[in-house]
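Two proteins were folded this term; both appear here.
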Amino acid sequence: LRDSRVSLVELVDLVLRDHVGVRGAVDGVGVVGDVGDDHGLLGHDFLSRQALTLDYRQRTVTFGDAPAKAAKVRFELRARDIIVPASVNGQPPVPALLDTGAAPVVVLPRTAARLGLRGYSAPLWPGVGFATARSLAVGATELRDVPVIIHEPPRETRDPAGFELILGTAFLAQYRLTIHYPERYVVFRRP
């Protein structure tokens, strides 16, 4: 990643002028981040005013609202992170970080113990457990037999947002994900 000054970016009818950001790629998309973050070209200051849809299978990002009849799940912004309620194995929901750049679904060890998730370890990955959640749900969206990693992320990563679970692309890539920042909701739709 390297610092970059962009004089003009036009995305359909959205225009960004004189943006100073970091150039990089997130799963080949390369459109998310701010100077000082490790996320890409367009930053939270721009994206937080938009509604956007990520389609991992088509590798596209489009701007605009979700369909009117879509089931919306409210989110909370904590330290600029999107937090949604997620339920594992039918248990009461826990705060989950929606992380479009993370690959796995990660469950913190104390949460895994409370939810009854038992992982196995691998010799090459000390301190990391591997398990399968029978179900993982966000609102009405539910996946079955989801591989999860049981791991404690660095304190500086988890403390500002206060999450117990990370929803990475192992979950997110199964859907077209719309994030509507101004109205604080997400929508998951099957491609």
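Next, the second protein.
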Amino acid sequence: VAVVIDDYERASVALATTSAVFNQQVIQLMPTPMAARDPAMTAKLLEKRKTLGASTDPVIADLISRVTSGAALDNLNYLTGISSDIKSRNSIHPDGLKAAAWLKTQFDRFGFTTELEPFGTAGYNPNVIATLPGTSEPETIVVIGAHYDSRGRASLSATDDAPGANDDGSGTSVLLQLARLISESGVSFKY
């Protein structure tokens, strides 16, 4: 499994929803955006996901049962500057480097091999690529992605605040949640 947090310009290659791939099944973990501001709604959505049919793979069902709104909100708060000193994740803002370094640390902590890949010309913040090789077909790559950069009102401003909770802090937060779940559960993947 490769988790790619892609730069804004390449985000079109990233998946729109975060899914877990297991034995060639694709299971959507969160069919609707996480209601980070309404914990009761989040709990209701998660409870609904727990009532999946009997045909659901028990490993996937276990992963879904471990999803927590608190962890996702903690990640989002950090990325948007609520609990950190990140003022902007614009791809040319210096704070984007802080976000990239923090993301690399998180994925490393969850057992992924993580690298910061230079993007474009000088001045752009790097891509964060976290890789977890498959057990039987490691040469086959599954990409689960989001972009961690954001845009403010002046999209090319290196100084405007661009906290980006929904551009794409929420998607990046879900990827971190998925990495945590994989790490804590010890689940492995064919690819």
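The beta strands are 2-5, 19-22, 25-28, 113-117, 127-131, 143-146. Helices lie at 39-50, 58-65, 69-79, 95-109, 165-185. These notes refer to the second protein only.
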